[in-house]
Design goal:
The protein is an alpha/beta fold. Helices cover about 30% and strands about 25% of the residues. The longest helix has 17 residues. The chain starts with a helix and ends in a 13-residue tail after the last helix. The protein binds zinc ion (ZN). The site of zinc ion has 6 residues, from helix 6.
Length: about 200
């Protein structure tokens, strides 16, 4: 058994403190999957594990598609493990788009892969583009699930703000469930000892 939480901790990818998230909310915990994926051996290990879950379920995938930038390394590693094609979607003027000459065949079975599924918003935007081009979304995948959606093999239930459809499976290796707070309700802010920081905002 590999311990996903331990792998995140060992790679300084599961930070504890007082953080300002890109959504503007505050949190005690910050996940930085890029730190886990900087070692290709770890990326391969995790992708193989995710790939096994997917193939064991009987799901057949023709193509993995990831929303850029966060999902690309995880999605690419997963496509290698599954032995399928990899494409990506990217934001152009804030709108998720599939470009770079990528084609999708009619009814091509596409799995959308992120590094972390939070509410699944970006994953759904990429899924909508795949559907517009004729593809069929057969699954979602991520290294980690932030606990807003329900993944296969977990009892943790989906929350109201999960954007993913309930009838399409989400595969992930672990649930990382932790509270996020509005600035005005943040217990660390109320304590007044620390200011929320944005990890990586100092150019590192
Ligand atoms: Zn705070």
């Amino acid at each position: 058994m590999i311990d996903i939480r331990q792998i995140y901790q060992q790679n300084n990818a599961l930070l504890q403190g007082h953080f300002l998230l890109s959504s503007g909310k505050h949190s005690r915990v910050y996940l930085q999957s890029a730190k886990v994926l900087e070692d290709p051996k770890t990326a391969t290990l995790l992708a193989n594990r995710l790939s096994k879950q997917i193939t064991d379920s009987g799901l057949v995938v023709d193509t993995v598609c990831s929303p850029a930038l966060g999902g690309i390394i995880a999605g690419y590693a997963l496509s290698v493990a599954l032995g399928v094609r990899f494409i990506f979607a990217e934001r152009v003027d804030k709108k998720m788009t599939i470009r770079r000459g990528f084609d999708i065949k009619q009814n091509e079975r596409v799995l959308i892969c992120e590094d972390i599924i939070t509410t699944g918003g970006s994953a759904m935007e990429a899924a909508d583009e795949v559907i517009k081009m004729g593809g069929k979304i057969v699954g979602f995948g991520a290294l980690a699930n932030r606990g807003f959606c329900q993944r296969v093999n977990s009892n943790h239930k989906a929350q109201k703000n999960c954007a993913l459809p309930q009838d399409i499976p989400l595969f992930a290796l672990e649930d990382f469930v932790f509270e996020i707070y509005d600035k005005d309700d943040c217990p660390m802010c109320k304590e007044g000892k620390t200011k929320a920081i944005k990890p990586g905002s100092r150019g590192n």
